[in-house]
């Protein structure tokens, strides 16, 4: 299994290198097509391998990590190239492995790449995406704090180029803002990484970066030392997650990123922040985590409400998706810092589910925006009449975003609220209000864009892309009694429904949304041991008893 | 003066059959690198006088490179053979493991610098062509304008075409204009001065070495024949301010001699330990000494010469200066801090905290406002000097090794960056303005990728040498109770990332300007030096163990 974990890291990187050479070498359409095909195959192989690792993973194993490898890297600093999987990391890697082929398929095999600036082909995007996947897999699997930090910074580079090279009109601004925010957070974290390294040197005699060693050190560190170190890590993760006062980069990056990049950015890359809370902040600084929990809870709850309100007020669909994510990250933060088994497990599951939901929503929005040539909500109206499948899938994506029972998000949100209630009733109640707002923002956007008479510049107008509009032929007799104006409007509609390929891209996500909505147990089984381990590392008694009743 | 120095050496066999050279402690094995460099520098002057003009450039290049390479081999052999550290020349030079590391670094950095200086492919006749007007005239007569640089089209084809035209112009009436080959002895003398500077064990030797390294540098800065006024202005500015700094240094030496009765570093430390004398001479002397040293290292408030000189000097000279002078100056700073002032560190360190903070803040904040790439690199070097100072102020083995590693890493990255900057040209000169880099990635992806990589290294992104070095220095600083300095350093790194990124943004995300500058196809010499810089930057980021271990083994011998 150790070898497999290493292959999981190396395969996408090798694939990225091959694609990069193909794209760079030719600059020809042939090289671009080959890169797209190879990239897609590599991402599928990676998915299969993750499936194998998932099957080999033993949830009941007594060790914290499985499939561990450890090679000395820089002995002078005591750093090791050390990888190992726990349930949460595996779940995140699996999420990534599912999303990357979808993103590559969407970008490479639909007409999405035609929108890339300066006529850039999708081959470069595929190469960067695979590189990002390799780095992220290693990041989730890292069991050495130094290695984690290195990958935390390195992952910015491919994402920076994805946004900057393939994004929308203001991509430069968004890419730089993204990089600087994250880099600043990373450097603050570097201060803490060095701090804990020095602290381990003074207390253990031998400075170390090994996660397990540092976790044992946690018991010896006084609160006064833990708090600054915690804050350093927390700042980086709070920027990445993002929690509210530090979130302003996400709407820009999310709105300007190409759709495929946005999916991975919000769906997986941001999860590094909450993953960091779970893997680094809580176990390494248990005392500080407990004493500073109110701070995080306040920020989380503000995020839930503020993100929801701002999402409702957005005029741009991609920014809308980004703000819904900020609200969801608030829930995840609440679950993590409520310190109960249920809430933690709910948060870990939420990380997976939110990835799927956001990917779905982002892709549907992207497909709509690609048709109309605009992502302004006001440019659309009554799209359901001309694109019923698109409209239906938009509704599915919206419903999973607002956590309708039966969709995947409901399970995790319910677990978070249930688990957070015994310890933090006030915050839980406030966060629950966020669910109402969620219904508001999702349904309102749906109503404005999909229902009612056909209207809007992007649907009817002669804006950019009018020449490529697909003529619409009304076939349904039931619609005959519509207003004559409307029938006329439908003839003038600039685009039609989803193509078979686009539906194929979305199908796996729809399947997962309902599968995990009804059968979350396989994922919870993998997550739960890691959550229990985290609980015992924090050293807090679970407020929820084994029978699910609060003590 | 001399009797003091000699009597300060206990057990020196002054009488008996020993010759004077043994009496003075001339250890030829230990001093070989210094003798080779300075000796070949003298030979190089003779070459200038006797070798015919047409062959001079080649002879000088081979001679210089051979001298540096042999000296480097000697240093490596001595470092690996485990010969114990010695103090030679009547206590004036200390050939310890720190000196050897610094010597190795200096010589290794000198090789790519010399290659860039000797390169004549990037611009017609090289940066030091004797008479650019005559060259241009000759080319005009041959019917070609501004050859070697190529337009915004295919790089390779028209580049060789231009070289062909330049060749044909040589066949016409006037003899080909040659480069100023004096640069080679200048570089060798400067290098010899640097070697002596960072190994100097007493302050007078240090001062003499300072002058030996400075004077050729002043001249080198003024040697650009294109944009001559800018170059000469920079030389005058550097010279005047440098003379000021030297005076400060000398005054400091005088005060310290007054305090300790000796100019040897270890004697100053001994005098300061447990003496009841007033400290004002000691710290006054240190303050003045530090001004002189910080000036050379372009630290903080003593940096004012840096941007103008970096901008005005011919780019290869800037590369040599940026990399090697920094190493030598910080080598000397380390030695003064550790050997002479280590025991009293607690009392003076606070003041230098302020200097380090000032340097980091000045470098990053003023760097933000720059639109000229060479000036930006200059301000970045001021910020990096602040980071280096964090390592110097941690008077621990970790601080020493971190600083040494930082110098090695920073030097190679800077040389690569300046080499790459010299390739982007418009018309007759370098296009250093930021806007000239718009869309560079589409026209020359390799140059843009290499430059981005080096800029990320300066920003301190992991897997580059810049990160490893910063980590080494910051962890040493934090380990020695410099938490505020480290925090300022981290914040400044984040701010500085902005102006490095701005260049990458220009190169990758902006559309190229239609009449934008062109990218020269570098000749083999520049290619080698840039490749060397980039490869070392990568290696020290990914597998830095060997260099870190070597730096960690370095110890001072008072």
Automatic annotation (TrEMBL), chain A:
Signal peptide: none
Record's bilayer topology term: Multi-pass membrane protein
Places the protein is found: Endomembrane system; Membrane
Residue ranges constituting the NADH:quinone oxidoreductase/Mrp antiporter transmembrane domain according to the UniProt record: 142-435
Keywords: Membrane, Transmembrane, Transmembrane helix
Transmembrane regions: 35-58, 89-109, 121-140, 146-166, 178-199, 219-239, 259-280, 292-313, 320-339, 351-370, 382-406, 426-446, 500-519
Superkingdom of origin: Bacteria
Family from the record: Belongs to the complex I subunit 4 family.
Record-linked PANTHER family: NADH-UBIQUINONE OXIDOREDUCTASE CHAIN 4
Protein name as catalogued: NADH-quinone oxidoreductase subunit M
